[in-house]
Amino acid sequence: MTIERTNPDGLHATPGYHHVTKVQADTMVYLAGQCPLQPSGELAEGGLEGQTEQVIRNILIALDAAGATPDDVVRTVIYVASPVREELSAVWAQLNASPLAPAFTTASTLLGVAQLGFPKQLVEIDVTAAL
């Protein structure tokens, strides 16, 4: 498997992700959007930071179950239920300071959205990996 991450000339500089991720792989792994739910099914406490921490844990567990690591991630989409740019930036910073950080050097999108699927849910992350 090979993953090539690039930022082509003529495109703007990024805060850590790459514009293009080219993959040659035998197996693709698609995670369901990972929510801030604890194993009990309860929403994680601690507001946006606590929910983001739970999503990080959930993604690491799901990747491990698939035989993948954060280095194998080729695409992420991060959804934050907030119109406040600073809150989106705080989630990005928290993700990039976590053990999941290598996943966000790839093709990544960060979106502020009106709402997510569970009541009081503030963050969800969609992840694709290649093996």
Automatic annotation (TrEMBL):
GO terms for molecular function: deaminase activity. It comes from the Bacteria. One of its GO terms (cellular component) is cytosol. Pfam families: Ribonuc_L-PSP. Belongs to the RutC family. This is Enamine deaminase RidA (YjgF/YER057c/UK114 family). It comes from Kribbella antiqua.
